[in-house]
């Protein structure tokens, strides 16, 4: 069971870290946080970036 737990933690850590980064970005009210949010949302609107992110997320699943 311990081996399964270690493997599971290794497999899920990237999603956990990404989720925490997104939460941190959207709860940061400093100017740098607002700028980063604005830039991130602008990049998400660009089709190639959206496709790249979709591919990365699908590979992790």
Explain how this protein is built:
- The two termini are 22 Å apart.
- The chain is mainly α and 61 residues long.
- It is built from three helices and no strands.
In short:
The chain has 61 residues and is mainly α.
Tell me the Rg in angstroms. Answer: 15 Å
Distance between the termini: 22 Å
Please write the string of helix (H) and strand (E) elements: HHH
Calculate the mean pLDDT score and round it. 86
* Count of individual beta strands: 0
The number of distinct helices, counting runs of at least 4 residues, comes to 3
Which spans of ≥5 residues are poorly predicted at pLDDT below 50?
A: none
Which word captures the global form? flat
SS content category: mainly alpha
Query: Roughly what fraction of the amino acids lie in strands?
Result: under 5%
| Major sheet | none
Proportion in helices:
over 70%
Q: Notable features of this structure?
A:
61 residues, 3 helices
List the helices and strands and how they pair.
Layout: H1 2-27, H2 31-44, H3 47-60
